[in-house]
Design a protein that fits this description.
The protein is α+β, with helices and mostly antiparallel strands and 173 residues long. The protein has a domain of 100 residues: Arc Repressor Mutant, subunit A. It is built from 6 helices and 10 strands, in the order H-E-E-E-H-E-E-H-E-H-H-E-E-E-E-H. The strands form 4 sheets. The protein has a 3-stranded antiparallel beta sheet with strand order 5-10-9. It has a 3-stranded antiparallel beta sheet with strand order 6-8-7.
């Protein structure tokens, strides 16, 4: 039920600009288990849902643990390109400067696309890389390195503020 409420609050935030305070600090990721999978299929000219019930053992269900949310950790190359995307909204994947930069970082355009797509931050479209987020926030964490996430609800900003407070607290010890 909690996951359904999160989904509804997120939709309300995106479509109706409901304030992100409805999420609280939202820095905990709730553990969930996939128990039902559905997909749309055509069968004999009729279109409908095909549901698959998934089973999990007691030990698999017990492994589901709530944990602290954290942004995606990126390579230097992906972080640099993502910052360019945040400033320019698109990056030409055939740009010679991009290709030279990726080569200097021992990365291919396919590697870059996969990394940013897996992080659900950017995807290719017509030879260009485009943001998938409405409010992408990037940062550099002393322990994790280059990080980024969608922050339309302010989650990434709260995470960065919490990490900064933790670092300041360590500095006083």
């Amino acid at each position: 039920m909690h996951a359904l409420l999160e989904l509804l609050w997120t939709r309300l935030n995106y479509y109706f600009n409901v304030p992100p305070t409805i999420f609280g600090d939202d820095l905990d990721a709730d553990g969930i288990n996939l128990l039902l999978r559905g997909r749309i299929e055509e069968n004999g000219g009729a279109i409908g849902w095909n549901f698959e019930i998934l089973t999990a053992s007691d030990s698999e269900l017990a492994e589901t643990v709530d944990k602290s949310w954290q942004p995606f950790v990126l390579t230097k190359a992906a972080y640099t390109v993502l910052n360019a995307l945040c400033n320019d909204s698109e990056v030409d994947l055939s740009d010679s400067r991009l290709l030279q930069f990726l080569e200097s970082e021992n990365m291919t355009t396919e590697d870059l696309i996969k990394e940013l797509n897996d992080a659900r931050l950017a995807a290719p479209s017509a030879g260009r890389l485009k943001l998938l987020t409405k409010a992408c926030t990037c940062g550099i964490d002393p322990e994790l390195g280059f990080v980024a996430a969608e922050s339309k609800t302010g989650r990434m900003d709260r995470w960065l503020a919490k990490r900064l407070a933790e670092e300041r607290g360590r500095g006083k010890e």
